[in-house]
Amino acid sequence: MEIIEIEAIPLSHSLDEGRGVGSARGIHTTRSTTLVKLKTADGSVGWGEAFAPARTTATLIEELFADKIVGMDPFAVESLAEESYMEGYHFGGSAIVQCALSGIDVAMWDLIGKIVNRPVHQILGGKKTTSLTPYASTMYVTEWDQDPAEPIERAIEEGFTAAKIKIGRGFEDDIERVRTAREILGDNASLMVDFNGNYRPKQVARSVENLSEFDIAWIEEPVPPENHSGYRQVRDLVDIPIATGEAHYNRFEFKQLIDDRTVDIVQPNLGRCGGFSEARRIADMATTENVAIRPHVWNSSVGLAAAIQFAASVPKYPHADYIPEPLLFEFDRSKNPLRDDLMIDSIDPTGGVLEVPQDPGLGISVDEDAVERYRID
C-alpha cells in the first residue's frame, strides 16, 4: 500500500481579547499547529500533528518531505528519521525539521494502525491498555490576572485527582500559588509545578526549599532547556524529581539528558520529538536507565490522541503491578478549540480516568469541516 497524497494544513485560533494565557515566560494569545493528512490508494487517511509555527512548518513539509512521502509504504515509517539526519546533514536535526517529521510519522502510524486494525498503543506496546490517570495542567499565568484558586476549584469539580501549575515569577508568588493549590486539592492529590525555565539553579533551589511543606511530586523545566549544566547543578541542589523535555527534539537531545542523569522524568511531545518512532526510541533509552517517561501535551486533538496512544504503550518497568504509581497524563485545561473541536467525539478527561481510544490507529475521527474553519492558508 502506497501513500498517494500528503497535505500539510496550518491551523490557528485567536483567543478572545484580554484572555491570553501562559507561563512565567510570557502570554499566548493564539493557539496554532499544523496537521498532516496522508491518503492511500484505497482511500485510507492518516492524521498527524507537527506542533510548531503553522505556516512555516506547512511550507517545510511541502518543500522538504512531500516528494519523498508520495509513493512511500507507511510501514517504512521508521526510516524517515534516519533519512532526515543523513540527507539533511546540516539541518536535519533542527527543531522545525523534527516537528515536521513528527507530524508525518504520527500520520503514518495512524495509517498502519488502520491497516492492521489495531490502536497504535497495542502495536507499540504489545498489550491493550484501557485507561490512564489524567492530571489537570492548569493555574496558568493569565492576561486578566485570574484568581489562582478558580482553575484548581474547577479541576476538583471535574474530578481530577492531580494537577500541575505554573510558577516561576518570584518566591512569594510561588509560595502563594502552591499553597492555594495544595489547600484546594487536599493532601492526597499529586501536585506538580512548572517553572518553564525561568529561574537560575540557585533560584530553583531556594524556591524548592520554600515549597518543601507542600509535597511536590516533580518540578518541571526548572532552568532553560538548553542549559544542560544548569540541570546538573539543580540535580545536585534539590532532592525532588526533575522533569523536562517539551522543548527537546529527537533521540540525541534526550540521550544526553538520560545519560547525564540530569533528570528523573523525560517529557517528549509527540508533535515535536520525531513522532512515535523517535518517542519509542526515547522510551527505550529512558526505561533502560530507569528514568520515567511522561509525554508533554499542549497540542490539538490529533497530538493529544497521539500522546494518549504513546503513553498507553509505555512499560511499567521497574515496577510490579502492586507499586502505586499511576502513569499521570497531562491534560491542558486552558481554552483551545483546536483541542476540543477537531474530533467527531471529544476525549473526556473528567472523572479522574482517561479512557484510551481502542479504535484503529490514533482511535479518533477528525472533523474535517472543523479543520477547514481553523485553516489559515
Automatic annotation (TrEMBL):
UniProt-listed GO biological process terms: carbohydrate catabolic process
Residue span(s) of domain Mandelate racemase/muconate lactonizing enzyme C-terminal: 145-241
Record keywords: Magnesium, Metal-binding
SMART domains per UniProt: MR_MLE
One Pfam family it belongs to: MR_MLE_N
Gene3D superfamilies, alphabetized: Enolase-like C-terminal domain (3.20.20.120), Enolase-like, N-terminal domain (3.30.390.10)
Cofactor (UniProt): Mg(2+)
Source species, domain of life: Archaea
CDD domains named in the record: MR_like (cd03316)
GO molecular function terms noted in the UniProt entry: hydro-lyase activity; magnesium ion binding
InterPro entries: Enolase-like_C_sf, Enolase-like_N, Enolase_C-like, Mandelate_racemase_C, Mandelate_racemase_N_dom, RHMD-like
Protein name: D-galactarolactone cycloisomerase
